[in-house]
């Protein structure tokens, strides 16, 4: 039962390798549409569905997420997925968030269309829907449809579409191409300072 005084907390999980404006616009738009009090960005520790490729160090991805969200008073970053040993499963993220914030907080897990389409392959998928409402956002190149997820627990929303991916940002850095304006300025500077994505 939803109480009108319940706190509404958004959770934006991602590998954020690196974080880009597509992530930030999706979180901002969902916060507006669902009247969220806060959106917590949760960088993955060990993203098991990306195990076939090299992922930047968790501390670099965490720090980039902090830099990118620092100017928005409604955005924050959590280390819970980075600090938990083993592969990162959203069921664990949601259980931990529920424990931290208690029953007076409604949880909204924010994903892009690609992640939503794969959600039934996630660990303990059925249990996740008892812990949070899921919000799937449009993403260029990915069709936004309901892939048989539980009715009433998933909302599909149109957000201003930004054709940006972390893969493209990494490829551009590797090729010596600019990523200015695809990511916040501080992220361009952090990537240069740490020499990320050059190999
Ligand atoms: N441009 C975008 N618009 C809307 N949602 C996005 C966009 N980019 C990523 N997302 C969503 O943000 C979440 C975290 O994404 P992730 O960190 O994997 O970024 P990515 O750009 O998909 O990375 P990669 O290209 O390395 O796979 C996922 O739910 C993903 O669907
Ligand atoms: O729980 C799972 O099995 C699971 C499998 C793949 C992805 N996720 C979560 O989905 C979010 C986006 O993941 P990614 O890999 O697209 O960055 C992030 O919070 C991941 O932990 C979760």
UniProtKB/TrEMBL annotation:
GO molecular function, one term: nicotinate-nucleotide adenylyltransferase activity
Gene3D superfamilies: HUPs (3.40.50.620)
Database matches in InterPro entries: Cyt_trans-like, NadD/NMNAT, Rossmann-like_a/b/a_fold
Keyword Ion transport applies: no
GO terms of biological process kind: NAD+ biosynthetic process
Enzyme Commission designation: 2.7.7.18
Any Pfam family: CTP_transf_like
Principal EC category: transferase
Pathway: Cofactor biosynthesis; NAD(+) biosynthesis; deamido-NAD(+) from nicotinate D-ribonucleotide: step 1/1
Record keywords: ATP-binding, NAD, Nucleotide-binding, Nucleotidyltransferase, Pyridine nucleotide biosynthesis, Transferase
Reactions mediated catalytically: nicotinate beta-D-ribonucleotide + ATP + H(+) = deamido-NAD(+) + diphosphate
Cytidyltransferase-like domain sequence ranges: 11-172
Keyword match Kinase: no
Listed NCBIfam families: cyt_tran_rel, nicotinate (nicotinamide) nucleotide adenylyltransferase, PRK00071.1-3
Stated role: Catalyzes the reversible adenylation of nicotinate mononucleotide (NaMN) to nicotinic acid adenine dinucleotide (NaAD).
Annotated family: Belongs to the NadD family.
Descriptive protein name: Probable nicotinate-nucleotide adenylyltransferase
């Amino acid at each position: 039962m939803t109480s009108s005084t319940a706190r509404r907390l958004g959770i934006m999980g991602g590998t954020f390798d690196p974080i880009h404006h597509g992530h930030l616009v999706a979180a901002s738009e969902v916060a507006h549409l669902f009247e969220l009090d806060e959106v917590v960005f949760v960088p993955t520790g060990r993203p098991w569905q990306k195990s076939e490729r090299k992922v930047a160090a968790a501390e670099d991805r965490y720090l980039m997420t902090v830099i990118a969200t620092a100017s928005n008073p409604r955005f924050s970053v959590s280390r819970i997925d980075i600090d938990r040993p083993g592969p990162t499963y959203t069921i664990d993220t949601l259980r931990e968030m529920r424990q931290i914030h208690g029953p007076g907080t409604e949880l909204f897990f924010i994903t892009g269309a690609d992640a939503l389409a794969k959600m039934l392959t996630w660990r303990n998928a059925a249990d996740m829907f008892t812990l949070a409402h899921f919000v799937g956002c449009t993403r260029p190149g990915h069709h936004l449809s309901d892939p048989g997820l539980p009715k009433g627990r998933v909302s599909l929303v149109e957000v201003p579409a930004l054709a940006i991916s972390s893969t493209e940002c990494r490829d551009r850095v590797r090729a010596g191409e600019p990523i200015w304006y695809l990511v916040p300025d501080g992220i361009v500077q952090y990537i240069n300072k740490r020499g990320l994505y050059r190999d």
